[in-house]
Amino acid sequence: MTSVGLARLQFGGTLLFHFLFVPLTIGLGILIAVLETFYVRTKSPAYKTAVKFWMKIYLVNFAVGVVTGIIQEFQFGTNWSEFSRYVGDIFGAPLAIEVLMAFFLESTFLGIWIFGWDYLSPRVHLLSIWLTSLASLVSAFWILTANSFMQEPVGYLVRNGRAEMVNFFALLGNPQLWLEFPHTVFGAMALSSFFMAAISAYHLLRHTQDDVFEPSYRLAVGSAMIFSVLVFILGHEQAQHLIVAQPMKMAASEALWHTSALHAPWTLIGWIDVARHSTPFVLQIPDMLSILAYNRLSGRVTGIMELNHLYQQKFGMGSYVPPVNPTFWSFRVMIFVGTSMMLIALYGGYLMWRRKRPRWFLVMMEWTLILPYAATTSGWLMTEVGRQPWIVFGLMLTAKANSPLVSIAELWTTVIAFGIVYLSVGAAAVYLFVHIIHGGPQSEQGQDVGDEPPAQLFVPTQERHAEGTGGPVTPDLS
Amino acid sequence: MLDITWFVLVAVIFVAYFFLEGFDYGVGMLLPFMGRTDHERRVVLTTIGPFWDGNEVWLIAAGGAIFAAFPDWYASMLSGFYLAIFLLLGGLILRGVSIEFRSRMEGLRWRRWWDMLFFIGSILPPLIWGVALANLVKGMPINAQGNYVGTLLQLLNPFALVGGLTVVAVFILHGATFLMLRATGELYERAKHVAFKAGPVVIGVFFIFILMMYYQTDVVRRLGLDPGPVPVLAWLSILGAGIFARRGHDKWAFVSSGLAIVLGTVSMFLAMFPDVMISSLNPRWSLTIYNASSNPYSLKVMTIMAVVMLPIIVAYQAWSYWIFRRRLTDNMKLEY
Given B57, B63, B148, which is nearest A405 (Cβ)? Predict the structure, then answer.
């Protein structure tokens, strides 16, 4: 593999791993804040139990999200030094502002929230979780400002051999940002709602503690209904903006090799022949692409080959076609999964309105947990892969953005090492999630174990006897 | 003008980072030795519990500030220190995950395992920062394009290794004095003992580092033979920390070890100014605050942001320390 390939593998892997945890941090934080608001208003201990239960999951998730986020920021420098040199003047600003406006707020008030139960009045304690959640939204805003610049660069001027910031407010007014930010946040809310609904369903089926999980379930299904519809609408808006701003990404996500007829059909699924530039076997819905693109029955959508020709005239010789298969299929997964999430959430809302909670629906809800993760992952795949070969669309090619003197050996070392770390941390996190979820709200976390563990760091083998197998939790009902 | 402002701001952020995360790292390095039972270890972790995450953000702030204000410095430093940065990040992952994961399961082996990772994650960052700062002051093979052309082994020269050792030693001292502020009973006595014992070692290592700085770097040529009051005061502060710890003046011991970190960091930045990446191949290839900075407009935007946000951040972080100002007692409910 080439240096650029390895750097991309490392960055893409980090991004996808990071984004398994980020949406739950954003959404679950807000849902917990709502539950704690109920607690402060009603003083009902069931709400407090619920908050403390979700908090355990939130914290495990938060820890992994934070550490992978740090890696993300530093990778711009380690693996993409030419990118940092060329656009750092404008791209560094939103990242630095994110730290100043969001990370400090989030981390400080999270600490206050976790440890402050017995130190603060209920209202101030409530304020700390709201501030933490608000901070995660602010954080999303600034990092997506940076990402939007990569999709649709604005507010810069190429001077002194680099892109320099000339208008900060253009960065904030980037039309891409105002579609990408709500779409991402609504997606995070939908994911977290499904997460909370699935786990509540698990406990409602087992009647662990219905007074705790009933409110959580109702809140989660209600919120899933709202946000799965909103994320769908914003997704549609974003696709329409793509036609104007990044038509190549749109064409690739449709595997549209040549400009469509006046009435463009939408490809449901298809078999793509990249070498021949054709999609020979397709299942299509007539006129649907025109509707998706322009909200009308007719309208042409420009094809990959025509756009490539156009870009060659504008940027010089070369291929400007992104990998069509990944772009096409990730778009399909996102749309199909997103649509099913919306239908499930709406039906769940309908059942709730009819005051029904059939067993089969709860069983199904348990399994829907996988859906939003598939949707957010494929959404990012489509956004980032579809932008290739550009790292900043129309401004800088990915192939020219990596660190020139970092060796292949160094890259392999870090790719493999990060891979191992991510897999182990991911496995440990999932293990803990299962442990916490299975244990339910009754298992008080953090009991002391063992009487006299020896002081030394590395414990001789014979001392590792049976007590430390991580067996089932003894419930502490006090 | 704004480039100097940002050099100062970066220095201030690093000072805050080393001062605050310094005791977190120190507590992490002391964890296996201070906490003999699981309960004690949990108390040790809880002393930094509400703060460590907020403290770590100062590092990310330093990264963000350098990226926004000096993109060339950011690019050269991070790609040049490639594997070192990887180890730093690896350490940060281990730390952040292990402190959060360790107490959520009851197995003894599970907890020992994470405690060991927390220890490793706490010793790697100070070691690497020491090595990095020493190399920044010493100068590194940087080519005309600002790219590092040396190898990893060149970064691990004796001077840099002593630098790494110095930072580790100072942070252990700082962690011990912090524990003296937060702990009671036997833990307090152990922390006091460590602070007192560590004092002379830290003084020795620090002295060797300063001495090597005269021989190994060109600071003498740049700044003259007289080191000025800052490094001398830093050295005296360490001396003070040991003495205060022995006398049981907890607050003064902590202030002294903190002051040593503040002044030590400041003297490193004074030794670099106005260069940020010194090229040992050709002085003209060095990155300075003038040729590595962002354009004036960008710096202006960032200055406004920093001037507005930093006081607010300091205020609420100070408030969080105020909330949890009480010492940890035995009957306290522990989160970690």
Answer: B148
3-state secondary structure of A40: helix
Rg of chain B taking only CA atoms, in angstroms: 20
Which residues have CB under 8 Å from A67's CB, separation 6+?
Answer: A425, B92, B93, B96, B97
Q: Is A226 exposed, middle or buried (0-12, 13-18, 19+ CB in 10 A)?
A: middle
Q: What is the pLDDT of residues A193-249, one digit of tens each?
A: 999 999 999 999 988 888 899 999 999 999 999 999 999 999 999 988 998 899 999
Upstream peptide bond of B32 is cis (omega within 30 degrees of 0): no
Interatomic CA distance for residues A197 and A217, integer angstroms: 5
pLDDT above 90 (res A458): no
- Which residues lie below 8 Å from residue B181, measured CB to CB, with a gap of 6+? B250, B251, B254, B327
d(CA B295, CA B304): 15
Assess contact for A154 and A166: CB atoms under 8 A: no
Contact B104 A453 (CB under 8 A): no
The helix or strand, by DSSP H or E, that contains position A381, with its residue range, turns out to be: helix A370-385
CA A154 to chain centre: 24
Asked if B72 and B289 count as a contact pair (C-beta separation under 8 A), the reply is no
ipTM greater than 0.85, yes or no? Answer: yes
Contacts of B193 in chain A (CB under 8 A): none
Give the model's confidence band at A472: pLDDT under 50 very low, under 70 low, under 90 confident, else very high.
very low
**Which two structure tokens, joined as six digits, stand for B224?**
């003259």
* Amino acid identity for residue B209 in this structure: F
pLDDT in tens, A8-43: 999 999 999 999 999 999 999 999 999 999 999 999
Q: Residue A142 is encoded by which pair of tokens?
A: 């600034």
Residue numbers in B near A459 (CB within 8 A): 112
Q: Is A446's CB within 8 Å of B103's CB? A: yes
Q: Dihedral of the CA atoms A410, A86, B144, B83 (nearest 10)? A: -20
Beta bridge partner(s), residue A266? A285
Tell me the pTM. 0.90
Write the CB contacts of A329 (distance below 8 Å, at least 6 apart in sequence): A378
Q: How far apart are CA A300 and CA A289, in angstroms?
A: 9
Token duo for residue B1: 């003008």
β-strands A266-273, A162-165 pairing: unpaired
- Give me the residue label for tokens 């060149």: B154
